[in-house]
């Protein structure tokens, strides 16, 4: 095997390394393009035109999966004395709280939807009341079932609809809304983005993913050809040595 380290073989080894590195890097480039395209489409879905909340789901309907991250519009009235704070919500490198206040939705048959008004570094926010018109992103209930260390206070560990029902005496939607634009209720709070975004089609940018695998298959083929070349070179050198010895 040491014979393959002879300087006359260095060019072939270098060519193999360059070809292998090229196939790996080109595959990673196509994989990155696939991931970027899917992320861009997910962002685009959150920028779709808003639809009325009442047309997306009713007060007693289960959450419609196709509307994750869908911008919705609604009008109604803030439910006074029902603001809750969702803990452990990072924002710009700081830990803090989502500020959530339910809204009694106009045309919602008396149902109430939790609305994340914004972010605060402390579980504090100015009280809100009266009418409101807002646009935001529709989100399904969170459900990791984190325990609430103090069920009696106004801080909850996650934005779970079942947790909100303990504080609001009304029928709740099976979703919540992260406010994007609101006529009231967001003053003094930092805006937040939805944590759950729309699922992207499995066919999105599929060509880039297939190209990535294609380049890596080429890389495997490069290694195979190099191994065959090494074996043939060793056999040829052995034959030459045997012929020289016989002579």
TrEMBL record:
Subcellular location: Cell membrane
CDD domains noted in UniProt: SURF1
Regions that span the bilayer: 209-227
InterPro entries: Surf1/Shy1 (IPR002994)
GO annotations of cellular component type: plasma membrane
Pfam families named in the record: SURF1 (PF02104)
Keyword Heme found: no
Family membership noted in the UniProt record: Belongs to the SURF1 family.
Name of the protein: SURF1-like protein
Organism: Nocardioides scoriae
Lineage: Bacteria, Bacillati, Actinomycetota, Actinomycetes, Propionibacteriales
């Amino acid at each position: 095997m040491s014979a393959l380290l002879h300087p006359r073989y260095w060019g072939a080894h270098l060519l193999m390394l360059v070809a292998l590195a090229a196939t790996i890097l080109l595959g990673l480039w196509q994989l990155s393009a696939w991931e970027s395209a899917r992320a861009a489409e997910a962002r685009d879905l959150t920028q779709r035109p808003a639809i009325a909340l009442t047309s997306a789901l009713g007060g007693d309907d289960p959450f419609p999966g196709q509307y994750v991250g869908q911008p919705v519009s609604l009008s109604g009235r803030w439910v006074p004395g029902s603001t809750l704070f969702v803990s452990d919500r990072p924002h710009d490198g700081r830990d803090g709280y989502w500020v959530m206040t339910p809204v009694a939705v106009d045309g919602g048959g008396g149902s109430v939807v939790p609305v994340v008004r914004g972010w605060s570094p402390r579980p504090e926010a100015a009280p809100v009341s009266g009418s409101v018109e807002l646009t935001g992103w529709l989100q399904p209930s969170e459900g990791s079932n984190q325990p609430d260390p103090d069920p009696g206070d106004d801080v909850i560990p996650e934005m779970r609809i079942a947790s909100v029902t303990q504080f609001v005496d009304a029928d709740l939607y099976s979703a919540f809304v992260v406010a994007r634009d609101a006529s009231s209720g967001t003053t003094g709070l930092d805006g937040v983005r939805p944590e759950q975004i729309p699922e992207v089609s499995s066919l999105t940018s599929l060509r880039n993913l297939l190209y990535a695998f294609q380049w890596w298959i080429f890389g495997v083929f490069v290694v195979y050809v190099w191994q065959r070349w090494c074996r043939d070179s060793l056999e040829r050198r052995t034959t030459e040595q045997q012929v020289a010895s016989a002579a």
